[in-house]
Each structure stands twice: as structure tokens, then as C-alpha cells.
Design a protein that fits this description.
Number of helices: 15
Structural class: alpha/beta
Radius of gyration: 21 Å
CATH superfamily of the largest domain: Metal-dependent hydrolases
Oligomer: single chain
CATH topology of the largest domain: TIM Barrel
Number of strands: 18
Distance between the termini: 33 Å
CATH class of the largest domain: Alpha Beta
Helix content: 25-40%
Low-confidence stretches: 1-13
Length: 439
């Protein structure tokens, strides 16, 4: 049965690992371990059972091991995208209007394989319904990255994730949930009792952390940017639910007042934050909260929208990107990197290019550390909800997950290499299994 399933998946475009054996020895690698600024040269790395077992000079390959000469390559940890949408990245926006959940799931599964083959071995999915995709990836039935899912993002009525039609309000208490809410792509909830229930339901689905809309957004038509979404009491109720599950809450927010309320409520990850002031950024540092940034600017890769309201908001938000990242770096706010790709497979394919855009504010080493070990530190806030506790992520170290890329060149000297993984990534490994080899 499993053989037939793998054949079927290959016919659908899903490929199995090139090498699924448990023991592999890399020899003569130049290693960026995800943390240290200096490259360790001429290193051997032994992989067993999906983990990095040994690192050192002149390691001996166990009997039956596959040996790979990594000479001339830089070994880096698998990349991590801390703001990804498996369900939204690769389906056109029109699909949300005229499609169904099966189409979104299929497109997300196809997109997951492409994500891994860009070198992103782990993503924090901050909105959607990737649970079945994650389940099948973890079982080896689909190809894709490790997923830390937030499940359906929670929004108030008229909030950033309220995608109901204009005619959907006023609501009737007896009305059924709207289609995308029923299928856990989005959730609209109001008031402490309702947000408490929905938060618990999402954790029951398998979320590793929760995601809310705490302020106005760009790709939504009923919420100006300046509004705070959810009261303190509602935010605090969601945080309390997350805390009972020993995890945390991330919040989509751009502005000061909403962020300050979120921090007071105990939210630990602010997504975007493009319009934040120095005062709020200093408060974030004091509270130990993360700023999850995306290098979104009005350049050749700018997002486009059908309605002028969203276009105007996009301009306002991206005008703040440069200032807030510079200021957050100066203040010392903990920062994570992500992309927030929405409704456009062509833009999603530029995921690596969006890593390179960070060179506008950071050195190549700082960028590479951010997209590996720094992002992994953010993921660790999921605590016991971490679905991959067997080893560390984002580093090349003994006992870590064997998520490894061999780069033809040194990205700490030439970060542009990350933008073209098809050309420059000669090997991609996740969990000790090779999904691309071109040595």
C-alpha cells in the first residue's frame, strides 16, 4: 500500500527523498554552524537517524554509510521562515472568493515541496489550515518543510481576517459559520467567552502557537491601519489560553497603541510592526518580545492589490519598513525574519531573494544567523508544543536535527547565493534525508 501511495504521489508531482538511508558522512565541509561568525573549515559531520551525531576532523564512516565529499562547499543549517502561510502562499486571491478548501490544500501541498527545495527546511505557519499537509510531510507521504502551525488566525468582526462578504452583517445568532471559518482557514470571534473557546479549539487542532489580528491590515477591506483590534480583555483571554497550554501568542499589528495593549496582555511576537515608534520598540525590548519583520518595500517585488484601499495601506506600511528595522536593530529588539507571501506562487518562489533583501540593514553574517539560529530561538517559545523536540533546529551541532544545505560558494561573503537555490544549493537535506543532490 505504501509503495502504491508513493507512486501516486510521484505522479502528482511529489517526490520521495533521493537518499533515505540513516547514516551519511560529510567530509571536508566548510561549516557555518548558524551561530559563530567564523567558518569552520575542513570539517567532517556524521549523520545518523536524522540527527547530527558527530562533528570533528577525520571521522570514520561506519559500515554501509553513504560518504559525501563536501570540498569546495559551505555547509549551512536549513533555512527557517518565521512568517509563512502554507495555505495562502500559493493560491491566487480569487481562490478565496471562488475556490474551495480542497483547492487551497492541494496548492499548499504542492507549494510545500517547492518551499523545501528552496532550502527552507522549517517554517512557522502563522495563519491557515496546514494541519493535514504537516501530518503527511511528517509521515513522509508528502515533501515539504517542518511546520509549526498557528492554525486559523483569530480576528474580531471587521478585523484583518474577517473576509466575509459585505452582506454578511448584521449576523443572526443562529447563522452557520461562514465557509472559510467552518474549514479553519480563518476564524472570526468576539468577546471573552468566544475567543477563549476558539483559542482552545485551535490548540485542539494541533497549533503550536496562536495567531491573532491585533490591528488593521493591508490585504483586508474593512479595517483601517490605525484601529486596534480586540480589547485588552479579549487579548488577555487568548494569551491565558495559550499559557495554559505552555505556549504563546503572535499578533499581526503595525501600530503603537495596539502593540502596547498586546504587550500588556502578554503577547510575545509582534508580526510586522512597520509603524512602531521608538517608545514602543523600547517597551518590546523591556518585555522580551520579538519583532517578526518582513523586508517588504516598494520595489520590483511589491505586492499588488485589486482594491485602491489596500494599495494605499500597502504604501503607508512599506514606507515604514526601512525606519522600523533600523531603529529596532539600534535599540536591540530581538528580531526574526519571514516573508508573509500571499496569494501569488510567483512571488513565493522569490523566498530566498527576500533573505537577500535583509542585507539593506544587516551584514551577511547577521542575516544568516537570523534565518537560522535566531528564528529557531523564536520557535522554541512553543515549549512542549514543539512537534520536533528530538533535536535543535537552525544550527549545525551535535544532537541537532540534520537539516543541512551545501552551498556552492560562501553566503557569508556573497549573500546573493541564497536568492538562487536552484543554481547554488547543491544539496538539501532535512532530517537526515537528501531531497536534492547535485554534486
Amino acid at each position: 500500500m505504501r509503495k502504491l501511495l508513493l507512486v501516486a504521489l510521484v505522479c502528482l508531482g511529489f517526490s520521495s527523498p533521493l537518499w533515505a538511508q540513516t547514516t551519511i558522512l560529510f567530509q571536508n565541509a566548510n561549516v557555518f554552524n548558524g551561530v559563530d561568525k567564523n567558518i569552520n573549515r575542513g570539517v567532517d559531520i556524521l549523520i545518523e537517524d536524522g540527527l547530527i551525531k558527530s562533528i570533528g576532523p577525520d571521522l570514520v564512516a561506519p559500515e554501509g554509510a553513504k560518504t559525501i565529499d563536501a570540498s569546495g562547499h559551505t555547509m549551512i543549517p536549513g533555512l527557517i521562515d518565521a512568517h509563512w502561510h502554507t495555505s495562502y502562499c500559493c493560491a491566487a486571491q480569487s481562490t478565496v472568493v471562488s475556490g474551495d478548501v480542497l483547492e487551497i490544500a492541494i496548492r499548499g501541498a504542492i507549494g510545500a515541496e517547492a518551499t523545501l527545495l528552496r532550502g527552507f527546511t522549517t517554517v512557522r505557519d502563522v495563519g491557515g489550515n496546514p494541519f493535514s499537509t504537516k501530518k503527511m510531510i511528517d509521515a513522509g507521504e508528502l515533501v515539504g518543510p517542518r511546520i509549526f502551525p498557528s492554525g486559523p488566525p483569530i480576528s474580531q468582526t471587521s478585523g484583518h481576517f474577517d473576509y466575509r462578504s459585505k452582506q454578511s452583517v448584521p449576523t443572526n445568532p443562529g447563522d452557520a459559520l461562514e465557509y472559510w471559518n467552518r474549514n479553519a482557514i480563518l476564524i472570526v470571534a468576539d468577546g471573552v467567552p468566544e475567543v477563549t473557546k476558539r483559542a482552545r479549539e485551535i490548540l485542539r487542532m494541533g497549533a503550536t502557537q496562536l495567531k491573532i489580528a491585533g490591528g488593521g491590515g493591508v490585504s483586508s477591506v474593512y479595517d483601517p491601519l490605525d484601529v486596534q483590534e480586540y480589547t485588552y480583555e479579549e487579548m488577555r483571554a487568548i494569551v491565558e489560553v495559550a499559557e495554559t497550554w505552555n505556549t504563546y501568542v503572535a499578533a499581526h499589528i503595525f501600530t503603537d497603541k495596539a502593540t502596547q495593549t498586546a504587550l500588556k496582555a502578554g503577547i510575545k511576537s509582534i508580526e510586522h510592526g512597520n509603524l512602531l515608534s521608538e517608545e514602543t520598540l523600547r517597551l518590546m525590548k523591556k518585555e522580551g518580545a520579538w519583532l517578526s519583520v518582513q523586508p517588504l518595500i516598494n520595489d520590483e517585488d511589491a505586492f499588488t492589490f485589486d482594491d485602491p484601499f489596500s494599495t494605499q495601506k500597502w504604501i503607508q506600511v512599506t514606507d515604514g519598513t526601512d525606519r522600523v528595522i533600523k531603529l529596532a536593530k539600534e535599540i536591540g529588539v530581538r528580531m526574526a525574519w519571514g516573508t508573509d507571501m500571499l496569494f501569488d506562487p510567483a512571488t513565493a518562489a522569490k523566498q530566498g531573494k527576500f533573505v537577500v533583501k535583509m542585507e539593506r540593514w544587516f551584514t551577511p553574517y547577521e542575516v544568516m544567523k537570523m534565518v537560522t539560529s535566531d528564528n529557531a530561538e523564536l520557535l522554541q517559545m512553543a515549549g512542549p508544543r514543539n512537534p520536533y523536540p528530538q533535536g535543535q533546529l537552525g544550527v549545525i551541532a551535535e544532537g541537532a536535527h540534520a537539516d543541512i544545505i551545501l552551498v556552492d560558494g560562501n553566503p557569508l561573503e556573497k549573500l546573493d547565493l541564497i536568492a538562487d537555490p536552484e543554481q547554488n544549493f547543491d544539496l538539501i537535506m532535512k532530517g537526515g534525508k537528501i531531497f536534492k543532490e547535485n554534486l
